[in-house]
Design goal:
It contains 2 helices and 5 strands, in the order αβαββββ. It is of the alpha+beta class. It has a 5-stranded antiparallel β-sheet, with helices on both faces. Strand 2 (40-46) and strand 3 form a beta hairpin. The protein starts with a helix and ends in a 17-residue tail after the last strand.
Length: 98
């Protein structure tokens, strides 16, 4: 999936009132992910319009959650799942035989 498609999906989640039930102040979301699932931040990146995208995971149980936080400090849940695995090496570039 192209990064522009992913960013559009994140933007839609942050702007869509129907998804407001999966959004809360960042501090609340981080506390809930830690207390309820044992998840901690594994990676972070900056998307368009100052949106911060983070991946939280619990390596012990394999659960993971992707969040997006807008410039006002409101964090929305984008996706979650199981079987999280940290990668220590970068994926090969397209066309590499490695």
């Amino acid at each position: 999936m192209k990064p522009t498609v992913i960013l559009a999906a994140i933007a839609a989640c942050l702007c869509n009132p129907a998804s407001a039930d999966s959004c809360a102040p960042r501090e609340t979301v981080v506390e809930e992910l830690a207390a309820g699932f044992g998840e901690s931040r594994q990676s972070i990146g900056l998307a368009s319009q100052g949106t911060v995208v983070e991946v939280f995971a619990a390596p012990e149980t394999g659960t993971w959650t992707i969040t997006a936080t807008n410039a006002h400090g409101i964090t929305c849940l984008i996706a979650s799942g199981h079987a999280f695995e940290a990668m220590t090496a970068a994926a090969p570039a397209p066309g590499d035989d490695a």
